Amino acid sequence: MSRTLRLLITGGGTGGHTYPALTTLSAIQRRQVPHDVLWVGTAGGLEARITAEHGIPFKAITTGKLRRRPNLKELGTNIADVFRIPVGVCQAIGHAARYLPDVVLSTGGYVAVPIGVAAKLIRRPLVMHEQTTVVGLANRILARLATRIALSHESSLAYLPASARKKAVVTGNPVRPELLQGNRAAAYDLFGLTFEVPLIYVTGGAQGSKQINTLIAEILPRLLPHAQVVHQCGPAWIEQMRAVEVPADLADRYHPVPYVGGELADLFAAADVVIARSGAGTVSELTAIGRPSVLIPLIPTGGDEQRKNAAYLASAGAARALLEPHPTGEQLLAELMPLLADPGLRQAMGQAAAKLGRVDAADALCDLLLETARPQTA
């Protein structure tokens, strides 16, 4: 680099939009590329907390979400958001014009649209990244404004406007590099696990999932003779899950925990099967580490993206998926038992998952940013 790269990042609201941007920024830092960064998001979004924790300069703007099928309860909010959106665009133009970035990285969420419009108006290149197999409404809007489009999955091309497809490249979805360096033995030591039966890691996200927790509680007595379980159930559920009745001689095979933090990489390395939702981040992590899974998508989500993510992995032989809105414990057991009984099947599914993963996604997106930045930074 002949001079300092000025990078403006936008995206957030959820971890699925926030962490890919943070991971890509870490890739730039690892390369020791001289750079300045400004993150533009919403004051109430996850990105505001994450940027504060990492000392990243942050500016907040107002934004709104236009719901394509608002119900009566959302009608008032939808009307209010119509007026918030132009305010956010004006704020975004102000921040972008003062900062004058060499390149803008957008990782999605409705906060990204005003910055995308601002980038177009001040003639700054925009790299848009899509995490899910389905391109959301905000990114379908931005696709028409973007200089380059980074996709996590080849199948996402079909969801782009035809005129935008020539600008697209598949980079994968950046995952934290530490998740690829787990220590299986460390997880076994931490939780006091046994080598007698396979390990299932269950997660419904940081807050837990009522649906997943209820299913696990239902099947535990029949599951534990064949497996041991580490279950991230969420802080609000921990006492209830600890009280689940299981056979006394198998009680030491069930390990409910409120939250999994730094030990996640070790658990991923140790897990023979993962039971999880199918959000973009989870799918990217499972494919990057090459783990077989049983996916229980959150329904509904915007564009039904979780169910489509799960179906995508299942069609590739990388996962089993419960695609019904209200799966039963019997259905979950029916998907799990063949996996627990057949190490070869687990291995084949793990290999299929790994073929879909991109462990170099952060570096690929970093390369795209540097290639797209204004010429004087190259």
TrEMBL record:
Name assigned to this protein:
UDP-N-acetylglucosamine--N-acetylmuramyl-(pentapeptide) pyrophosphoryl-undecaprenol N-acetylglucosamine transferase
Main function: Cell wall formation. Catalyzes the transfer of a GlcNAc subunit on undecaprenyl-pyrophosphoryl-MurNAc-pentapeptide (lipid intermediate I) to form undecaprenyl-pyrophosphoryl-MurNAc-(pentapeptide)GlcNAc (lipid intermediate II).
User: Which terms in the Gene Ontology molecular function aspect does this entry carry?
Assistant: UDP-N-acetyl-D-glucosamine:N-acetylmuramoyl-L-alanyl-D-glutamyl-meso-2,6-diaminopimelyl-D-alanyl-D-alanine-diphosphoundecaprenol 4-beta-N-acetylglucosaminlytransferase activity; undecaprenyldiphospho-muramoylpentapeptide beta-N-acetylglucosaminyltransferase activity
Q: Which CDD domains match?
A: GT28_MurG
Q: InterPro entries recorded for this chain?
A: GlcNAc_MurG, Glyco_trans_28_C, GlycoTrans_28_N
Q: How does it sit in the membrane?
A: Peripheral membrane protein
Record-annotated Glycosyltransferase family 28 N-terminal domain positions? 8-150
Q: Which SUPFAM superfamilies match?
A: UDP-Glycosyltransferase/glycogen phosphorylase
State the GO CC annotations.
plasma membrane
Name the protein family. Answer: Belongs to the glycosyltransferase 28 family. MurG subfamily.
The record's principal subcellular location, in a coarse class, is membrane
Q: Which domain of life is it from?
A: Bacteria
Reaction(s) this enzyme catalyzes, per UniProt: di-trans,octa-cis-undecaprenyl diphospho-N-acetyl-alpha-D-muramoyl-L-alanyl-D-glutamyl-meso-2,6-diaminopimeloyl-D-alanyl-D-alanine + UDP-N-acetyl-alpha-D-glucosamine = di-trans,octa-cis-undecaprenyl diphospho-[N-acetyl-alpha-D-glucosaminyl-(1->4)]-N-acetyl-alpha-D-muramoyl-L-alanyl-D-glutamyl-meso-2,6-diaminopimeloyl-D-alanyl-D-alanine + UDP + H(+)
Q: Which residues form the Glycosyl transferase family 28 C-terminal domain?
A: 200-363
Q: In which pathway does it act?
A: Cell wall biogenesis; peptidoglycan biosynthesis
Q: Give the Gene3D superfamilies listed for this entry.
A: Glycogen Phosphorylase B (3.40.50.2000)
| Signal peptide annotation | none
Residues annotated as binding UDP-N-acetyl-alpha-D-glucosamine are T14, G15, G16, R176, Q306
Q: Which species?
A: Nonomuraea polychroma
EC numbers: 2.4.1.227
For this entry, list what GO says about its biological process.
carbohydrate metabolic process; cell division; cell wall organization; peptidoglycan biosynthetic process; regulation of cell shape
For the protein in the UniProt heading, the enzyme class is: transferase
Say yes or no: keyword Calcium present. no
Q: Which UniProt keywords apply?
A: Cell cycle, Cell division, Cell membrane, Cell shape, Cell wall biogenesis/degradation, Glycosyltransferase, Membrane, Peptidoglycan synthesis, Transferase
